[in-house]
Specification:
This protein is mostly helical. The chain has a domain at 82-157 and 178-299. The chain contains 9 helices and 2 strands; from the N terminus they run αααααββαααα. The protein has helices at residues 2-41, 46-74, 76-79, 84-114, 120-155, 183-221, 227-257, 265-288, 290-299; strands spanning 160-164, 174-176. It has a two-stranded antiparallel sheet with strand order 1-2. Helix 1 (2-41) packs parallel to helix 8. It is globular. Belongs to the G-protein coupled receptor T2R family. This is Taste receptor type 2. InterPro entries: TAS2R (IPR007960). It is found in: Membrane.
Length: 301
């Protein structure tokens, strides 16, 4: 039995290491290209600002998750001491929710910038969206910080059992007894997941409706419009993200359900996909951005 537990943990850590390092490389590439462009141009547009913060949050999240998984398997006795565990839980929750909200902000930004509606409120948002981006960052940061503090407080409770469930690599690693003490934290976390998911769905629906109207107008007038390419490119990016985000949302909910399960196949699959998501979506963002795609194809040979 001890051999099976060790083999399970080693396999999980190996897969997590492979996925985490691939995701860190992809997001580090985004950060490097954007920072070099920032130094050269002395400025960043709103889209690049969101991509920069999204790449940074994903890189940090993958680093902390991998370090937590690795240490929980190699040096569990040194990891599960106060305040190391609490700090690991805090930073993991903070960067995870920054990742969720920055991703949702990027989808909303694409929708407002590219979609065409004659509604006065939508036109107002299109004009003011660049000024609203810093406020989106501030709101996302405050919400993520709040959830991080709550996660720190939950991990500091005496109800938490610090015997490791090897290789989980996140808040679910601690075997937590789900009772009334933890209901507020799970409720707030679930609300954050659902709200960001709803924002992504709304952005995809509005952009799809705008694309449909724009295509009908072009066919009626028998003319071509360059904005169609922008519509289609953004639509592909958002729809691919919506599919992955939907799976990720299900995994986040299942992680809350299976948080007390040790070495189950469901928790293993959840963790595997959650480590795949940041790198895979960032790769899609690279090929959706002409500047990033051109730089990647240039350096790959």
């Amino acid at each position: 039995q001890q051999y099976n537990v060790t083999a399970y943990g080693a396999t999980t850590v190996a897969i997590i290491t492979l996925e985490a390092f691939a995701g860190m490389w992809i997001n580090a590439f985004i950060l490097s290209v954007l920072c070099i462009g920032w130094v050269k141009k002395k400025t960043l547009n709103s889209n690049e600002k969101i991509l920069l913060l999204l790449g940074c949050s994903r890189f940090c999240s993958l680093c902390i998750s991998w370090a937590y998984s690795f240490l929980s398997f190699i040096y569990p006795n040194y990891l599960y001491v106060r305040p190391i565990l609490q700090l690991a839980v805090f930073f993991q929750a903070f960067f995870d929710h920054c990742n969720l909200w920055f991703s949702a902000s990027l989808c909303v930004f694409y929708c407002i910038k590219i979609a065409n509606f004659r509604n006065s409120f939508f036109i107002y948002l299109k004009v003011k969206i660049d000024r609203m981006v810093p406020w989106l960052f501030l709101g996302s940061g405050i919400l993520a910080l709040t959830i991080g503090i709550i996660a720190y407080d939950v991990a500091d409770k005496p109800h938490c059992n610090y015997h490791n469930s090897t290789g989980q690599g996140n808040f679910g690693s601690a075997n937590i007894k789900m009772d009334k003490h933890f209901f507020p934290s799970f409720f707030l976390t679930g609300f954050g997941y659902a709200a960001s998911f709803l924002a992504v769905i709304c952005a995809a629906v509005f952009l799809l409706f705008s694309l449909w109207r724009h295509k009908r107008k072009m066919q009626t007038n028998s003319m071509k419009d360059l904005s169609m390419d922008a519509h289609i490119r953004a639509m592909k990016s958002i729809l691919s993200f919506l599919v992955m985000y939907s799976i990720n949302f299900v995994c986040l909910v299942l992680k809350m359900v299976y948080v007390t399960k040790k070495r189950s196949y469901m928790t293993f699959l959840i963790v595997v996909f959650q480590y795949t998501f940041p790198g895979l979506h960032s790769l899609i963002l690279i090929f959706s951005n002409p500047k990033l795609e051109k730089t990647l194809l240039k350096i790959l040979p």
